[in-house]
Write a structure and sequence with these properties.
The chain folds into 2 domains: 37 residues; 141 residues, 6 Propeller (Neuraminidase). It has 2 helices and 10 strands. Strand 2 and strand 3 form a beta hairpin.
Length: 212
């Protein structure tokens, strides 16, 4: 008895369906213009954006976060400050200056910032991540730490610092140091490869997954 050919028919039907879908996509692209962005062509009405300068003179802003107070919360990598900026008129206030921050290279300093989801609603916590010198002597031992501050709306300032995690490996390059709060309510931090195993640091081991 010869083998049944039904599976071959199914394959042909599937191939025909794929061919029709591909033909429809190519026809739509041709109608929109070769290489055109379908989003720009088919949006009705077209999306428009405007550009304006909100604030100037910031000392190398690293993280910009929109706060529940309608302000932009910004870390200044070189300035070692957390600054709040009103996007309406550009007025700013310094929430805190962290003198302990070690900033000497292109990818260190005050970097990560995360606001507690309940900020101004009972949990006024603000988290930052920055580099510091962990060596008490003349040598420099670059490490990163995660610190928690409490925001005081009456004083418009951050206070009551608490170091949550210190001694995080941080090299001269690729430090990452970003913070975010996940849907599980936990604080997540990123660490980079410190530029290790690359160019001048080819023989330096990557310590990104080492916990302090």
């Amino acid at each position: 008895m010869p083998p049944m050919r039904r599976p071959r028919v199914i394959v042909k039907r599937r191939m025909n369906a794929v061919a029709v879908s591909l033909l429809s996509a190519l026809t739509a692209q041709a109608a929109a213009g070769q290489g055109a962005n379908p989003r720009a062509v088919w949006s009705t009405p077209l999306e428009t954006f405007s550009l304006r300068v909100v604030a100037t003179g910031l000392e190398d802003p690293s993280e910009v976060t929109w706060g529940p107070d309608g302000r932009l919360w910004i870390t200044e990598r070189i300035g070692k400050r957390v600054v709040r900026v009103d996007p309406a008129d550009g007025t700013r206030s310094v929430a805190v200056t962290i003198d302990e921050v070690l900033q000497a290279l292109a990818q260190d300093g005050l970097q990560g910032l995360a606001l507690h989801p309940q900020l101004l609603r009972g949990s006024d916590y603000v988290y930052v991540m920055y580099t510091y010198d962990a060596d008490a002597g003349p040598a420099t031992q670059r490490r990163a730490k995660i610190r928690r501050y409490t925001y005081d709306p009456a004083k418009d300032a951050l206070g009551d610092p608490v170091d949550l995690l210190t001694g995080i490996p941080h090299g001269p390059d690729h430090g990452a140091s970003r913070l975010t709060i996940g849907p599980d309510g936990k604080l997540y931090a990123s660490t980079g490869d410190q530029g290790s195993n690359f160019l001048a640091y080819y023989c330096v081991p990557i310590r990104a997954q080492e916990l302090p």
